[in-house]
Every structure is written in structure tokens, then in C-alpha cells.
Recover the amino acids of this structure.
């Protein structure tokens, strides 16, 4: 992914398959464990030996991730901080302040900026949209914050932790909305 299809093969509907299905990933249920949920219909099921034939005979062009439902969008929002933390893990601290190019931001600056935009732009905008019938949302220029707030002197790892907490707040806000 993103160049090739992605599938989820698992033996636990709740832990393996339902989360994958939320974002539109095709799922194959390994039935050796005896688990069965009649309410959940996987794209394929059987023993582990049946996974390969299922893969070979499936309609792969239709296997695209679909982020077109509220649940799938919330799943992406919810998982982004963890994905960022996973990508950043193992990067030595001295590299967090290195800029790839002279006019680009360091990892430290990026995480500080994401934290502040979440707290000061995204959450307040969503709160306004929820409270008001016809809200007027102003543009905020946030790129200048990188220098104004000395992001290069802040702790990017701590900023990522705060981003994760604030993202939970945003997801909670959005999760409680009715479809209308």
C-alpha cells in the first residue's frame, strides 16, 4: 500500500477484522480457532491453507482503502498520532532538529506545529461548527508559529504526546455527532 492492495487475515473478528473493515480493507477470517460471529460476514474465510487461493482468485482491483464513511474517517484521525509515533521511534534525538533542506522544517518543528494546530485551530473550529448554525470560520496563518514559538527549542516527543491526547479530544467531539 498505496501501490498494491492490502488485506487483513486474522482469526479474531473483534481485534483483527472489524478494525480493518472500518477503513475498507478486505478481510479473511481464519476459522481454525472455531470463532464464529454470524453478524460479521468476511470477504473470505477458511483455514490458513485457503488464504492463498482466496488471494489468487479475488477481485483485487476492487481492493482499495475507502475512507468515505464517518467510521473510517474517525479511524484515520484516531490512528494518526500512533502512526507518527511509530514512524519517529528510533530516530536519534540529534536528528529531530535537523532540517532536510534549508527551507524545510525539522521533525521537532513539525510535531510542535501539529500539536498547536490541533489545539488552537482544529478543535476550536469543530466546536464552532457544532455550536453554530451558520458559522463564520476565519483563516489562520500558522506557518509563522514555527519561528514565533521557537519550535526548534521545544520537545517534539512531548509535543507528539500532547497531539495524541488532543486528537482523542477531537475524535470524541466528532464521534458524538449525529449523521445529520
Amino acid at each position: 500500500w498505496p501501490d498494491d492492495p492490502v488485506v487483513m487475515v486474522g482469526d479474531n473478528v473483534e481485534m483483527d477484522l472489524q478494525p480493518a473493515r472500518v477503513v475498507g480493507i478486505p478481510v479473511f477470517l481464519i476459522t481454525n480457532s472455531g470463532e464464529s460471529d454470524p453478524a460479521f460476514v468476511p470477504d473470505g474465510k477458511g483455514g490458513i491453507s485457503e488464504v492463498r487461493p482466496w488471494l489468487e482468485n479475488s477481485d483485487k482491483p476492487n481492493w482499495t482503502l475507502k475512507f468515505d464513511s464517518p467510521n473510517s474517517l474517525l479511524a484515520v484521525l484516531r490512528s494518526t498520532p500512533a502512526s507518527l509515533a511509530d514512524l519517529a521511534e528510533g530516530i536519534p534525538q540529534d536528528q529531530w532538529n535537523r532540517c532536510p533542506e534549508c527551507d524545510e522544517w525539522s521533525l521537532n518543528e513539525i510535531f510542535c506545529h501539529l500539536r498547536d494546530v490541533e489545539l488552537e485551530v482544529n478543535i476550536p473550529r469543530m466546536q464552532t461548527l457544532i455550536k453554530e448554525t451558520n458559522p463564520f470560520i476565519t483563516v489562520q496563518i500558522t506557518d509563522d508559529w514555527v519561528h514565533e514559538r521557537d519550535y526548534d527549542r521545544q520537545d517534539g516527543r512531548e509535543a507528539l504526546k500532547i497531539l495524541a491526547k488532543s486528537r482523542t479530544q477531537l475524535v470524541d467531539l466528532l464521534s458524538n455527532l449525529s449523521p445529520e
